[in-house]
Specification:
This protein has helices at 27-34, 69-72, 87-97, 101-116, 118-121, 141-152, 182-194, 218-230, and strands spanning 77-82, 126-129, 168-170, 196-198, 206-214, 235-243. The chain is of the alpha/beta class. It has a 4-stranded parallel sheet. It has a two-stranded antiparallel sheet with strand order 3-4. Strand 5, helix 8 (218-230) and strand 6 (235-243) form a beta-alpha-beta unit. The longest helix is centred in the middle third of the chain and has 16 residues, at 101-116. The N and C termini lie far apart (51 Å). The model has no long low-confidence stretch (mean pLDDT 94).
């Protein structure tokens, strides 16, 4: 029997490629390891969008957080960490440069977060990735990430949609929202939501919608609106790898 003291120590995020656990690791150890180097959420943060607050009674400056739940069409968005290096750099390498190996690590972080925060999501009926268009290049990053999460949930503890039979797909590419104003982001989010197609019923289900980053919440609003008002979902919550801090939005 191998003694725990004899096992190699994880190298720490983002040294994952050289880590002994890169191929044989499991979500909890990767999530715990990454938590040592990621910029975690502030002690005081918005309960709706995970943005940092300077005091527990501070009102979040994110406009969508002042909307009613019926206007937002999502109840809250959890974030694994803040959008800062080293996580920021690796998300960009994955999303824009096509380094697909990070999809495995991000999939593990998602499952590790779910395992560690089961009390926040134990009533969720279905976990979906916010889909990308079939022609997206260099990689359909959300699909790669969610495929990894599905595979890494080896015990089938979480209701992650089977990637071979997607529940929600995107039919075509739409305008990007990065770097745009609030109103332009909202319009891009509506275009994105309009390009989605539901392939399986979500009626009466509580859905956890997974994405890479959260900036304004426009995408969660637009997609959540279709899921709730058009397709009959009971509730939409969110989970992202990273929450963009104020000043970067």
């Amino acid at each position: 029997m191998t003694n725990a003291a004899d096992l190699p120590q994880p190298l720490g995020f983002p040294k994952c490629r050289k880590c002994a656990y890169v191929h044989i690791g499991w979500p909890d150890i990767c999530a715990e390891c990454a938590g040592q180097t990621l910029r975690l959420l502030a002690e005081h943060h918005c309960e709706l969008c995970s943005q940092s607050l300077s005091a527990p009674d501070e009102i979040c400056r994110n406009p969508i957080c002042r909307w009613t739940p019926q206007q937002r069409h999502f109840t809250r968005v959890h974030a694994i960490a803040m959008f800062a290096d080293p996580l920021e750099q690796k998300i960009k390498r994955f999303k824009y440069d096509g380094y697909t190996g990070w999809g495995l690590i991000f999939g593990r972080l998602i499952v590790g977060w779910l395992n560690a925060h089961a009390h926040d999501v134990e009533d969720i009926d279905l976990i979906l990735g916010n889909p990308t268009a079939p022609q997206r290049t260099p990689v359909r990053h959300i699909e790669v990430m969610m495929k990894a999460a599905y595979a890494e949930d080896t015990r089938g503890r979480w209701p992650i949609a089977d990637p071979t039979s997607p529940v929600l797909i995107k039919k075509r590419e739409t305008e990007k929202s990065a770097g745009k104003s609030w109103s332009a982001k909202m319009e891009a989010a509506r275009e994105h939501a309009a390009a989605l197609k539901l392939r399986q019923s979500v009626k009466g289900k509580r859905i956890l919608l997974v994405d890479d980053v959260y900036t304004t919440g426009a995408t969660f609003h637009a997609v959540g609106k279709r899921l709730v008002t058009e397709w009959g979902a009971t509730e939409v919550r969110g989970l992202v790898l990273a929450r963009v801090p104020f000043g970067m939005v």
